[in-house]
Structures
1.
Amino acid sequence: MPGGPKGLTETERRRRRERIFRWLAVVHAGPLGMAVAGQPELGRRYPEGYARCPGHPSLVCRASGGVPRVCLPRRFEELAESARRGGRKRRGFEAQRIEELERCLDLLDREKPDFAPVWELTRAMLREAQGY
């Protein structure tokens, strides 16, 4: 439903988006996050899977690559702070960041297909957050 479920106040929408983004930060912050995401078997492989990313061609990180265990949680924390602070105007900023994250997830999905359940869960949660 565009604009989120009916009957929610702007404050409730912001809080729901913030919770989603903070949860995603936890999921991508370490091996235990894989268990939070329902994929505990991936926890052992977290260090190798999240160690390096070549960087998406359309993003600034392309020049230097990236470290997903650092950049993904940081981006989700930034989104959570944005959601906490503002409503409609901030959603434009969040939409841009989510679009960038979707590109990152596409690249990570190609580079690290073993983590596909986590990437798909992340995409689903991002779509849910955009619904609010």
2.
Amino acid sequence: MSFTTYFMHLIFSSIPSLFSSESILYFLTILSVLILLFSVKIMFYKAPKLRGVK
């Protein structure tokens, strides 16, 4: 068992859940990828345009 899996097991074992431990790993991976994609979208597409230097 890896270090991350061990601590995730400790965190989620106390919470009654409908998910199995493998589903939680997939869910957190998908969540982290979505957060990364949204942050890239904000950085590059919704960034304020810089004014030109005179």
